[in-house]
Amino acid sequence: MNKAFAVVVCLYCSLTQAAAPVKLQVSPGQQQPVTLSRLHLNRIVTPFTAPQIRTIDQADIRIEGSVIYLSSQQEEPFVVYITPHDSEAHALSLLVTPLDVPPKEIQLSLSKQWQQKINHNKEVAKRFEEASDYQQVMTEVLSMLVKGQIPEGYELSNIHKPDIQHCQQDGLVFDYSRGQVVQGHYFKVLVGTAKNATEKPLIFHEKNCQGSHTAAVAMWPKNTLHPGQRRELFILLNTPDQESAPVVRPSLLTY
Is the entire prediction scored with pTM above 0.85? Predict the structure, then answer.
């Protein structure tokens, strides 16, 4: 074989290998190191129907169906968290190292152990929610949470900005900096606090926390707040059916 031709063949082989998708099996709670292109668009295929992504990096991020397109000119490593659209309980953590390499495709899959755990918890929560009528289940869920209990199959995690329910009432300061998300099957509860920032007593009105998926709002232990007083705020949301989440076809003219 001609030596020059052999070099070209080897170069072609290396480029082909570099362009091949990288398949990774990941588990929530375990950080997975990955390398991505620093100057090109990367493609991350997730195991979630409509993933959400969070990172402090100033990255260009686009989500199309279950796929995340990510590019960043940052030189230092950064962390990316990927979660299902309907739950914050399970986050896939990627430690991204940007390098001057060709664009990459990363295909993520959940470990069998974690997939079974997620499916089991969702089924338990579903059975719990279907055991009573709609109003009774909401009352029971909120009643358990104010007592510090977690309903069957529900999972507790920290709240993230996209989940924050915007409440507005003069004199009250709503705080989710240490907020919680309690995720079931049909329901998700956001827990934050409200503080009376005035010098007179105030009565909280639930209607000031209404949203498109809001099913119930409760303040514990009372709706009356004295000056400087804080109370826990519980906002129960209907969870959109994951199976009905829209899958978007990427435009051929986008990239």
Answer: no
Residue 40 belongs to a domain: yes
Asked if 68 and 148 sit in the same domain, the reply is no
Task: Say if residue 103 is in the same domain as residue 157.
Answer: no
Torsion over CA: 197, 212, 59, 155 (sign)? positive
77 phi and psi angles, rounded to 5 deg? -60, 150
The predicted structure's pLDDT at residue 85: 74
Q: What is the pLDDT of residues 175-201, one digit of tens each?
A: 998 899 998 999 999 999 999 999 999
Instruction: Report how many domains make up the chain.
Output: 2
Q: What number of CA atoms fall less than 13 Å from residue 171's CA on the CB side?
A: 15
Question: Among residues 34, 62, 64, which one has the least CA distance to residue 49?
Answer: 64
CA–CA dist 210, 208 (Å, integer): 6
Residue 119 lies in a domain: no
Full residue range of the structural domain in which residue 55 is found: 14-110
Three-state SS for 193? strand
Neighbours of 185 (CB within 10 A): 22
Give residue-wise pLDDT tens across range 45-94.
998 888 889 887 678 999 999 999 999 888 899 999 998 876 666 788 99
Q: Cis peptide before 221, with omega less than 30 degrees from 0? A: yes
Tell me the HSE value of 251 on the side-chain side, using a 13 A CA sphere.
4
Which residue from 154, 145, 136 is spatially nearest to 220, judged by alpha carbons? 145
Distance CA 38, CA 57 (A): 12
DSSP one-letter string for 157-209: EE--GGG------TTEEEEEEEEEEEE-SSEEEEEEEEEE-SSS-EE--GGGG
